[in-house]
Design a protein that fits this description.
Elements: E1 7-12, H1 16-29, E2 33-39, H2 40-48, E3 55-61, H3 63-72, E4 82-89, E5 92-98, H4 102-107, H5 113-133
Antiparallel strand pairs: 1-5, 2-3, 3-4, 4-5
Helix pairs in contact: 1-5, 3-5
């Protein structure tokens, strides 16, 4: 599956719970904390009776990067935190991270470019480390 223009993707051969734990650890290693966790599968089942694959959205935040972004543009909080999706896909798990450069694309604020590039590098490191764990 190609990456959507607003995300970056890694496919891993792991079970869902193990992959989620690995993503959390690698986010932490790159300076991100998980502020929110949305169990999409559980929510849709409970609220709508809808069955779907395991799917979680982790709201990841690097406080230093968030501070720099907010100093450049207070309204950028609308686009924070960096969402990371972990979901079952066939016989493996997809890990998808938001494309941080969308901050610049959506806001048109070049002052966010350095923050977005640093966030992109850290999220790429998370995806690579998670893939390496299960290679």
């Amino acid at each position: 599956m190609p990456d959507p223009s607003y995300g970056r993707t890694a496919h891993v051969a792991a079970d869902f719970a193990t992959a989620v734990a690995a993503v959390r650890e690698e986010l932490s290693a790159q300076g991100f904390g998980v502020l929110t966790e949305i169990d999409v599968q559980g929510t849709l089942k409970a609220k709508l009776g809808h069955d779907m694959e395991d799917y979680v959205i982790l709201g990841a935040c690097s406080p230093p990067l968030a501070r720099r972004a907010l100093e450049a543009d207070r309204s950028v909080g609308l686009l924070l935190p960096c969402n990371v999706v972990v979901r079952v896909d066939g016989d493996g798990v997809l890990v998808q991270a938001v494309e941080p450069n969308m901050l610049v694309t959506l806001t048109g604020d070049g002052a966010l470019a350095a923050v977005a590039e640093e966030a992109a590098g850290r999220l790429d490191a998370v995806l690579a480390a998670v893939q390496d764990r299960f290679a």
